[in-house]
Design goal:
Blueprint (H helix, E strand, L loop, with lengths): L3 E6 L7 H14 L4 E6 L5 H4 L6 H15 L6 E5 L5 H10 L4 H5 L2 H9 L8 H4 L1 H10 L5 E4 L4 H17 L8 E4 L27 H9 L20 H9 L2 H12 L5 H27 L2 H30 L2
Parallel strand pairs: 1-2, 2-3, 4-5
Helix pairs in contact: 3-13, 4-8, 4-14, 8-9, 10-13, 11-13
């Protein structure tokens, strides 16, 4: 049996390059020789957007199209929506009965998110307890590993702790999943900060060629390089970060040298990134157009994924209920 992996993503808007390079590229590689389960975490979206749920269905559908256009293959991966498999909520409830509150309060992203999203009231159980739902999402499918970025490692460790606690209280049911770290956990946005929808600095995978070139033209560069004749420092340039991810090693070396000697300007450097990015995204634009013309196929993919995921989820919950004698 191939190793099983599971990962999910919240439907919070259009998929951007940070999602593609930080997660989806990893998923696409894994589906070549792993048993993959990828789900849209629509219930997780409620943890910060419970007051306005009007866009969750729209964002869920859009995220699925983004995944499929980017190369997630429903013939090799099980693609589904979290809320279509109620066992996620049931296991979340059972795990919440046994998790110590200090385990949740020590979550490093709990206070960070509250500071970052001050315009919303996040003093809710749903926000404090979302790592339990995340643990339930994972343990329900008993994966061998979970593709994550470094910022998600504390959540995965909590999942392992909950698995151990359950196994010790009742009987062994859950394996402890390992992490499968993403290659590019942080992708820089157009303003130099981490690419994020909340910062409004994203380049989206569904953007047109014209939109991508326009966004890259305004991207910040080495702040010390004011004039075309000034020598630059690629080590502090967000545009060069894109070269390190997207360009060949030969191009990276040439840009590095030419920037430091002022042989090329920032406009030239940005155009090179735009060219390679357009070439990279063109196949996904073609797949997107094909998908948009066949909406019934998308619904079939969702239903098939739900059916496959439900079989595994129900089998796990049968074991859980037997272990707990309920």
């Amino acid at each position: 049996m191939p190793n099983r992996v599971l990962s999910g993503m919240q439907p919070s808007g259009r998929l951007h390059l940070g999602n593609l390079l930080g997660a989806l590229d990893n998923w696409k590689a894994l589906q070549e020789d792993h048993e993959c389960y990828f789900f849209v975490a629509d219930w997780h979206a409620l943890s910060t957007n419970y007051a306005d749920t009007s866009h969750i269905k729209e964002f869920t559908h859009g995220l699925l199209i983004d995944w499929l256009a980017a190369g997630i293959d429903p013939n090799r991966s099980t693609v589904f929506v979290q809320s279509s498999v109620p066992e996620h909520a049931i296991l979340h409830l059972l795990l919440s009965m046994m998790v110590p509150v200090p385990w949740l309060e020590r979550n490093p992203t709990y206070k960070e998110k509250q500071e970052e999203i001050k315009e919303k009231d996040l003093s809710t159980y749903g926000f404090l307890g979302y790592p339990i739902l995340q643990a339930a999402d994972i343990l329900l499918y008993k994966p061998d590993s979970v593709p994550v970025g470094k910022d998600q490692l504390p959540h995965l460790e909590l999942t392992r702790e909950l698995a151990r606690r359950f196994n010790n209280l009742y009987q062994p049911v859950f394996p402890e999943p390992k992490e499968h770290l993403t290659q590019f956990p942080k992708v820089t946005g157009t303003d130099g900060r981490k690419m994020s929808k909340s910062y409004g600095n994203t380049i989206n995978v569904s953007d047109t060629e014209a939109e991508i070139r326009k966004k890259l033209k305004t991207m910040v560069t080495d702040p010390a390089r004011v004039r075309r004749t000034d020598k630059g420092n690629p080590d502090v340039c967000p545009v060069y970060d894109f070269h390190k991810i997207l360009s060949s090693s030969a191009t990276q070396e040439q840009v590095n040298q030419d920037c430091r000697s002022a042989a090329i300007g920032c406009i030239d450097c940005k155009k090179m990134v735009a060219d390679v990015l357009v070439e990279r995204l063109s196949p996904s634009w073609e797949r997107r157009a094909s998908l948009m013309a066949r909406p019934d196929d998308i619904q079939d993919i969702i239903r098939n994924g739900q059916n496959k995921a439900s079989i595994v989820a129900k089998a796990t919950m049968k074991e859980v209920n037997e272990a707990m004698k309920i």
